[in-house]
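User: Hey, quick favor. My workstation is busy. Could you predict this chain's structure for me?
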Amino acid sequence: MKRKLEGKIALITGGTTGIGLATAELFHAEGAQVIVTGKNAQTLEVARRSLRGIAEVVKSDSGDAAEIGALFAGVGKDHGGLDVLFLNAGIVRNASILAMSEAEFDEVFRVNVKGPWLALKAAIPLLRRGGAVVLNASINARLGMPGTSAYAASKAALRSLARTAASELAEQGVRVNAISPGPTDSGIIEKIHSPEGAAAAHRALLARIPQRRLASTGEIARVVLFLASDDSSFMTGEEVVVDGGMTRV
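Assistant: No problem, here it is.
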């Protein structure tokens, strides 16, 4: 049986850990030639080992205009074009509106909104007809959870960007969709909380999810694959929520 991304060139921003890493592995298994980006030296080195023979790992700051430009120039030079773009890179900074600094707010929007916008801008000349773009949004854009003002707003902006880009790229034959994951066992909770705080956050989330568990990164990756492949060929401008029923039941 033909693999879903056979012969495709796929780029995943923030692909060295979590959802991005799981998606890189799945895209490779489905026949794609995969490029992933990251900027943390430690995770880049780990990814280069774990993704050897699976994906090309490139150091690139997903919120830096010069590095984004160089990244896509390299893709154009080395591969001649691009078929799949998963704009996955993002950061979380949690604090109340009162407590959050202007610098923290700006950093969230630099990486989570400006970065994907710049990447999309640079990718448009490279995207081949029949190509697909997937933006990683979040159910946080819908929830109004305390402490998430910058993060949630940035993800709402990504959802809006997906709609506009879908309209603008339709004539080019490129589809643009968004995925909005719910709580996922990607390590992000542990990254932003102390061990005690992470345990409390897990308990609070499980109480709100009808399936009483977090998503695995592989489960999210399979939905990204759906949006990136011809399985979703008549979908564009859409948002697919993957949250175990958290915002639906």
